[in-house]
Amino acid sequence: MALIKPFRALRPNPAYADQIADLPYDVMSSAEARVMVKDKPYSFLRIDRAEINFPEPVDPHHPQVYAKAGSILRQMITQGLYQLELSECFYIYRQIMDGRSQTGLVCATAVDDYINDVIKKHEHTHPDKEIDRANHIETVGAHTGPILQTYPDQEQITGIIENWISTNQPVYQFTAYGVEQICWVIDAPDVIDGLKALFAAVPHFYIADGHHRSAAALRVAQKKRRENPGFNGTEAFNYFLSVLFPASQLRIMPYNRVVRDLGGLSDVEFLARIQERFDLEQAPVSPYAPEAPHQFGMYFRDKWYKLTAKREYVPEQDPVNSLDAAILQNNLLAPALGINDPRTDKRIEFIGGIRGLGELERRVKEDMQIAFSLFPTSIADVMRVADAGLVMPPKSTWFEPKLLSGLFIHLI
Description:
This protein has helices spanning 17-20, 30-36, 45-48, 63-78, 111-115, 127-140, 155-167, 189-199, 211-227, 267-275, 324-333, 357-366, 379-387; strands spanning 4-5, 10-12, 82-84, 90-97, 100-110, 119-120, 142-143, 147-151, 172-176, 179-186, 205-209, 239-246, 252-253, 255-259, 278-282, 295-300, 303-309, 348-352, 370-374, 398-399, 410-411. It has 412 residues and is α+β, with helices and mostly antiparallel strands. Strands 1, 4, 5, 6, 8, 9, 10, 11 and 12 form a 9-stranded mixed β-sheet that branches. A 6-stranded antiparallel β-sheet has the order 15-17-16-19-14-18, with helices on both faces. Strands 2-3 form a two-stranded antiparallel ribbon. The protein folds into 2 domains: 4-251 and 400-411, no CATH class; 255-375, 2-Layer Sandwich (Conserved hypothetical protein from pyrococcus furiosus pfu- 392566-001, domain 2).
């Protein structure tokens, strides 16, 4: 069963929270981050992407970069920009985007639950990315980026959280990137104990976003366990920073694709190859977003098309290959366009749904030849894949809104 733990968060002085909290490090490049922090001296990106504090070019994995992250955090504490909670607490983190809210519990979750698959995964991770975040965690001495996790809805848990919200004032309330950010501190021991007991009955958590941060936390914990063979499991390094959301509240947006060329095919040959496995028709509207699973939009030669996968190419009983990202890959991108490994092939790029269909048209007019719009993956699909011990196709989920970093820091 799932274990959650309250912790003493290092969190911003309320007067500076909106100036500190920022998007997670992995949704932008270093160059983009440099631009984003130009007029934001306290942005948490200066800690999460510490290479932006150095003149270019700089190796973002150099020890001095990680050391800079730690020194900036210590300086912010000295300046009174951060404060350490007096007691172990849970926290509530609510985000409201386009009139839709998601409300999660900020807590520490157990490395051992991650090891034992109580916390389920659905992505492969890259060792180099794990090592980068592990070095960051160890040098800074903290988990700075929250892991987005989900669980099947539990009415009692939701009731306790909503009751706390209705009877207590938030410690933070501001808008960032068009999303309202509201946070509360749960400091009542009876409420903390009640939540711990209810979550202990939840069989599994599911990582929605943050696989590399989770894997990095494991690396750090294993290293510290080797260095401290007498550890008893209560040490902070045995836990990592998480925000737990009921599954019904999470929003997954599509993860669309753009392709650079036709792989040597003529236009006629390309359209003919599509029709071997898809019904092809002119889209009813332009631009076109699919209305149901197994439908796809395609922007090609200044036109939007609607593609519908033929029934025999939809393996409904296969939790992975029945997903739209896999159907498109297995029945069009690979056999028709020769894109066999979308993780490494430079001819394909992925566009998060938050950028809209206009971004697909722009890219095709600028440097690509084809764009595909996909129907969003459901959270039920993510859970089904994780429960089967399998891995989602690459770039098949885009969660919005993104959790901001810097609001809650878990010291180790």
